[in-house]
Design a protein that fits this description.
about 250 residues; alpha/beta; 6-stranded mixed β-sheet; 3-stranded antiparallel β-sheet; 9 helices; globular; binds adenosine-5'-triphosphate; ABC_transporter-like_CS; ATP hydrolysis activity; ATP-binding
Length: about 250
Amino acid sequence: MVLQIDGLTGGYSKTPVIHDISFNIGHGEIVGLIGLNGAGKSTTIKHILGLLRPHSGEIRVGGLTASEDIESYRRQLAYIPETPILYEELTLKEHIQMTAMAYGIDEATAMSRAERLLKIFRLETKVDMFPTHFSKGMKQKVMLICAFLSHPDLYIIDEPFLGLDPLGIESLIELMVEEKRNGRSILMSTHILATAERYCDRFAIIDDGRLIAIGSLEALREEFDMPGATLDEVYLRITGGGITND
Ligand SMILES: Nc1ncnc2c1ncn2[C@@H]1O[C@H](COP(=O)(O)OP(=O)(O)OP(=O)(O)O)[C@@H](O)[C@H]1O
């Protein structure tokens, strides 16, 4: 297992926001973290990143907890936030170099991996420019390049498809599938269920801070007795959504 979450209760203050969440991610698995606004997806992700301490329960990445060895723990992860985090004083090339340093990758390896990624995301002519001046989608691509450069065991991607143009989305999906084939794993939170349905092996559905379902689309269809349903349909049923006249 790459990620093991066992009975995680946590949040920002003494009052927990997420309650007793347990699920695992195996090698080469893509798992969608799905839930309504405020359901607890980002909070769960912050716990996995080691930014919040569990009130109770445990999170292991590659068998390690964050409190055992935070640096080794973090090197196994790459996080791509929904809002890009970039350094004003660094060029794109320097962002790449800094990422390589943080992950202990030598510069030659990093630059050869980066060259391919820069081409894929059409930023190869922009390496000496400052990404804080890039467009929103271009900034997101910088975050993606830095993440895919580091070849972590587990990618955590927040809303990967927002802000990218169709070519960018296609490239990202190809990279995700390639990494999956290499045995690397991805946890992505998304509201774009039609795309998630096509690429995720399993879905962890969070509602009001609790994990209310987990499984492949086929398993969810069976569990909720909805043969042939789309992820959207299953999800609306599970969360009691949709507009009714009651
Ligand atoms: N920094 C914070 N301090 C205190 N409470 C927070 C903080 N961030 C989020 N929360 C609360 O935690 C709960 C879960 O929020 P969270 O951001 O995890 O939801 P989400 O599922 O990621 O939602 P969205 O789809 O809107 O991004 C909400 O009730 C929210 O108000």
